[in-house]
Amino acid sequence: MSKKILILPGDHIGPEIMAEAVKVLERVDSLYSLDLQLDHALLGGAALDATGVPLPPETLAKAREADAILLGAVGGPEWDKVEAARRPEKGLLGLRSELELFGNLRPALLYPQLAAASSLKPELVAGLDILIVRELTGGIYFGEPRGIRTLENGERQGYNTYVYSESEIRRIGHLAFSLARQRDKRVCSVDKSNVLEVTVLWREIMEEVAKDYPDVTLSHMYVDNAAMQLVRAPKQFDVLVTGNMFGDILSDAAAMLTGSIGMLPSASLDKDGRGMYEPCHGSAPDIAGQGIANPLATILSVAMMLRYTLDKPEAAAAIEAAVSDVLDQGLRTADICAEGDTRVSTSEMGDAVLRALQS
Ligand code: NAD
Ligand code: IPM
Ligand code: MN
Q: Which of this chain's residues are annotated to bind Mg(2+) (predicted)?
């Protein structure tokens, strides 16, 4: 039966990296007879400019119908002054929330060919394979009340609310533990329970969930220490599970260990494994239009889509092998290019992955 894939290119480098990912998706579709139906829609700044809202009803309707969604990135300085409710990023957050994509998997995996591109010494990152499991539809990103209010003395005050209910913590916990079972069977839960009650509850529920997984070891770490440990000795981690904002921040830090934020893919899953797939990076307005963005995070997100939603692990593995092959050939976009490498453009990188897929 055919599968519907919704393509949301987004803003700035979004369309540039998406063009390469779609080439790869179309190629695996024909190589593996996947019978995919691709459709496109607007999200973020592109949608705001065209329709006045960052998540148009048509996009949401198509997203609900799709078996999987592939997203580029949204946002940019030209929309900085837009009010909070209509910002491009709200479109992305709305989609995550409406589709209940609570489970965000961000694998920080070092391709050995990129050891020199990592910001850490090669011996600290050789063999690095961490999975960050970030809660994506709750926490301080979505807590109410929120806003900017004027106090009696006339001063304005900004406020957000950091909340997690037991059920939200439990379901991300189960996801993290079940994924750890397929890996090195270690979960480190990251919180700030020395200060924040919401994460005292987080820690308590993680302990409870752990009882269902006696074969998996649970440890806890405060988020400030976790940030430090990630750049001190990242290989100590297997699965990290944490809330929305901590996960956002820690995953960008983890990205640099792999050589570039342009290498980190992600999956955002609902309870049934339906998902949205996107690179962890943003729309990189500073390099947009130059043809230099690294498309590999988006291409690797296609691999995650094949693995987690479409259940085509062979096709997923083929993409990952093709990426590795291209890196073996010394081909590098600017962000991962070192002396002796061959620097290629965004589209040359996409073409190289296609050639490697074929061979
Ligand atoms: P960013 O991730 O866009 O860029 C940070 C730095 O990384 C920049 O120097 C950029 O050039 C570089 N970079 C990012 N992706 C790259 C790639 N594929 N290849 C090479 N270099 C790359 O973060 P930012 O600058 O803080 O945010 C820019 C915009 O993107 C903002 O509007 C932000 O809200 C948005 N954003 C969107 C998403 C998303 O759509 N999922 C994620 C993060 C940020
Ligand atoms: C990400 C981004 C988003 C987030 C923004 C653009 C809403 O930084 O996907 O990592 O904070 O979740
Ligand atoms: Mn982020």
A: 224, 248, 252
